[in-house]
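Problem: given the chain below (245 residues), write out its structure.
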Amino acid sequence: MRQRLSSEPDRYRGRRRVPTPPRSRYAVVGVSAFVGAGVVALGAMSTMPDAKAVNPKVLANLENSSLASSQLAEREADNGAASRGEARGTTNTKASNEAAEADVWLLPLQQYAFTAPFGVRFGKLHAGIDLAAPEGTPYRAVHAGVVTAAGYQGGYGYAITIKHPDGTEAVYAHSRRLLVKAGDTIKAGQVIGEVGMSGYAYGPHLHLELLVNKMPVDPVALLMQNGVDIKLQVESVYAGMAAES
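Solution.
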């Protein structure tokens, strides 16, 4: 057997190690995987009645508003924590209670499973979030306002729309029964309907939409700005105050 000369290239010597990606690249990959998982989860929703066709301009606006919502949520969390800490240290007068009640945002259900997020799939927008709960479970208004619509709304089934003092609107869909009517003034935490599967629904759940200037926004981000983490099922510090009033 011929002895390999030292001048001959080693078959391993020419191979280059693949450089380890920087940490920031791992972060991008992680975020991409998370977003990808969310898109896959939205696959079944592309045919649902609350999946709305949107044009590219609207999609761009949604992306921008989502980024702005995230930044605003961070500022609101800092400011809200400070203001809530000050509020707890002051005397609870009737006026402050009424102000807190008017401002409070709450969870729509006490117990539920978060089953579908807000987002786009194949050019269709699932304009809200889905919270699964047993049929007949009472659900509550997340914020005070006036009922602008209550009745059967096609694919949404029995649904309620409430307009809040700041102009935002909330839509509660697929109800089994409605407990309010158009024109009613609603307090945060007031029971307004029961979970069902009316309209086009694959199981009992509450479909919750939040709209700003008539445009749907991610309820998770908007609720977070107002002290409610709907994924962790955590309410505002004023929740107990509103429930007692």
